[in-house]
Amino acid sequence: MSCDESYDAVVVGSGYGGAVAACRLSIAGVKVCLIEKGRRWDAKDFPRDVFSLISAVRMEWRKWGISIGSDKALFQIHEEGDSLAAVACGFGGGSLVNAGVLLPTPIRTRRDTRWPKDWNKDWEHFERLASSMLGAQVVPAEFTNAQVMTQILEEEIEDYKPDPIKLSINFDRKEEEEGHNLVGSKKLESCLACGNCLSGCPYNAKNSTDKNYLALAVEAGCVVKAEIKVQYIVKDPGEDCLYKGKKWN
């Protein structure tokens, strides 16, 4: 990125948070630059076997300054205190490698007093909006994992209602020949139930954020800088941060 480039907002990271921020800001007319450490992943690039999965992992022991694996590996695992933290590295962030399960927020979570009170009135609206953007679809009954997930949810969530489980994955076989597309230019194929959701969908059936929120952000003018790592952010002490007449300190 050259020093003479100027933006109203810079978003670091392209996971769910960064993707939504870049999308909404760009649509609102803000000049946005999104910076992502990882590369762009196509379906054919995701690991399909144990050997390719190993090569897609980077292990890092920060305390000792030791690392194994590529800096652009899909999975970045590092020591965090007495635990190991695993994050995804790529355009689309964690949406590339999670299971895509979309569940309504449990009632007890919404009752937490730390949430702003005025959020509650629009909670369902924005959950429906996110579900629509991510192309949530009901898991077909013939998929064995649908039964397993239902059992887990009934055991873990005390106020869980037995609604059909939805994933941000395309199961629509009616459009299998042409592919299915909700947002953006990349068409989705139909899920084959291969079980590789957590290592990136190799059949292009997952509606990760690069196919919806990020696609819309780019269409609205967002500039994407992939394979760039942000080390630190420095504010120029001699300049005020101004946007449309508003001063940000």
UniProtKB/TrEMBL annotation:
Its cofactor is FAD. Residues 182-211 form the 4Fe-4S ferredoxin-type domain. The keyword Ribonucleoprotein does not apply. It holds the Pfam family GMC_oxred_N. Keywords: FAD, Flavoprotein, Oxidoreductase. GO terms for molecular function: flavin adenine dinucleotide binding; oxidoreductase activity, acting on CH-OH group of donors. This is 4Fe-4S ferredoxin-type domain-containing protein. InterPro entries: 4Fe4S_Fe-S-bd, 4Fe4S_Fe_S_CS, Cholesterol_Oxidase, FAD/NAD-bd_sf, GMC_OxRdtase_N. It comes from the Eukaryota.
